[in-house]
Design brief:
The chain is mainly alpha-helical. It has one domain (38-182). It has eight helices and no strands. The protein has helices at 2-21, 39-51, 55-71, 76-86, 106-121, 131-137, 143-156, 160-173.
Amino acid sequence: MRSQILIIFIMFQINCFSSEFLNEFSSDGCTNSPNGNWGHCCYEHDFLYWAGGSYREKKYADERLLWCMNLSGGPGYLYKDFVRNAGLTFWSTAWKNQNRKLKVNLKEKSLIESEQKLWNSLGRPNNFEFINLESIIFPNLTSDQKKIIKMKLTQLRTTDSYKNFYYIYKQKTKYLPATEKFLNPN
């Protein structure tokens, strides 16, 4: 009984702490685009974008979208190209007041814009490294943030929408969705 009370108290503290800093997760599927046979890919991508993190994690989310859509018969390259350009607004939306794109100073904005112009002038190669963008806009998740994401994912997994996403994802790709990495990082 005592351990149950302690667990309830800890969960209450986490919920209070997280609601102060955390926006709720939601997915509209493939935003402003057809969901086709690949809506589950967009759901996973939405979750990874919501959680945020480093630029490497953003690239991982975008590569997962491409991979999943290709396995599911979707236009992966088209969607990946779109989110690579327009996705910054939706990156790391879990964390209130932490969207670095809204806090970029003029010098940082100039560095990012010149890097994007270079990328465009080179024909938008997939292997282009956005060094300025990465260092300015994409902070790594802290261990506390990872714990909160794990707790929220544990809650999300009990919903019908997540269960449906999980089932379709495994059925179409034969793999576990990347959301599971937050629960089992190894």
